[in-house]
Amino acid sequence: MKQQNKDKLYNKRRNEMNTFVVPFDLEDSLTDVPIPIISLESLTKEEIISKAIKFHSQGDIANAAKYYQHFLNKGYTDQHVYSNFGVICQQLGQIDKSIGLYRKSISLYPNEPEPYSNLGNILRGIGRLREAESSIKKAIQINPEYADAYINLGKVYIQMGKLVDAQISTQKAIKLNPGFANAYSNLGGILKELGKLDEAESYIRKALEISPNSKLFQSNMISLLTIYNPQRNNSHEIIRVNNKFREIKMNLTGEDFITDKQIKHFYHEGLKIYRKHKLDLETHLSQIYKSGATKLNCKRHKFVFNQRKVIPEFCFGCYKVQTETNSIIDLIKLFLVFNAIKLSNNNPRKCMIELRPNIKGFYKGLIYCIGLEEANNVCRQVDVQIKKSISTNLSSKVKRGCSEYSIEYPLYKEINQSGEQQMNYNKEWKKIEDEIDKENKDWSKGFTSVEGFNLNNFLIIRNWIAYAQKIGDQSVNMITDEQMTEPKIFRHLNRVYNSAINST
Asked: Taking Cα atoms as reference points, which of 209, 196, 191, 280 lies closest to residue 241?
């Protein structure tokens, strides 16, 4: 009976105040605006809630958070406060606090679906996928027509490698809410991973029709075009602009040295297109990846490692040829070399800026190889080309697998050029891999990159330039005098540049 009274009170107040997911970038709104303590202390419970919700809906997150926190400090309880404050804490990276707030919200009103779905979403973000699935399913059990929960469940299934389940869940969200732009975009991403590229484009296009200014949806379309070349007549602006970028020539490598002036010209060819079309596009990506004949299936391997802290058997035969440059301008040169270099097995490769806090270095290029012998051969071939095209001071080295593995198992990174390696696959781990693979049978199909330059490449290079400006690499001034807007991907980056090449 006591719970029924609570539910009646909640339903009455729900007409006056909604729980919501904030539709803007919280960090853009963070300001340290003081609130007079005297006026705050004088407010009633209802007035505190009202002001918190008002600030929150206006995007004044700093003041909203202060009012929410003051509400809790006073010993008051309210399901909406816990959920809304949980949203803020989640997006600010205060994960433990956010989980606690969602759990408190659930304890107050166990028959409301939103806190279960929100809690599941945050558990997904920290890799606790079983718990996430269970929590979101509880939300759906309470409200089978809760479209947001189906979207969140689909995200969990994507990380689990259950792409078909993710597709079904996301299609359910669209059926419940035909105007749900996020659902169309997510479904496009799932179909992309399943190799159904025509369908993927149609769904991402639908999302853009509903929300044409969404940076996320634009980025998803741009990313799709790195592996997909539409054959039919296409009028979408992003596709037209991407075709313009594909006309930029990348053949600066060969017998001649690549000059800084050529790199400046190469970048400004893209900038002219960007400005001519008055683009306001961005990407969250920081590395340019070119797929090859070998399918690495990295999502599957990282899933195994993150869930059970075991290194997959495949990864014991995976080596990488790593080249580090000491400037942004040389990274772009390396990108051109890696794009052009002909390898017998057409190995996958990427160029990137280093963002991981526990990994040294700034600018890197990686070519992935199967087996130590192949890696050594590729390393020699790369060294010849980079010394000819970039600098005689540059050289490559062979490393083993992913850097994250070496943090957990230091011996993994040690390479013996002859004889047994210091760390080999633990055969007991095979049972764990088999157990995981029983449930995950539809990982990404793998793709072959569309040849040539593209819009996605250009936007990533702009992120590289912003990175160079942030860390203090003065060579960026030889490329452009633009002052780039800092992308969110390294807003909290704390890395000091020096011209010496840092290795892991």
From this structure: 280
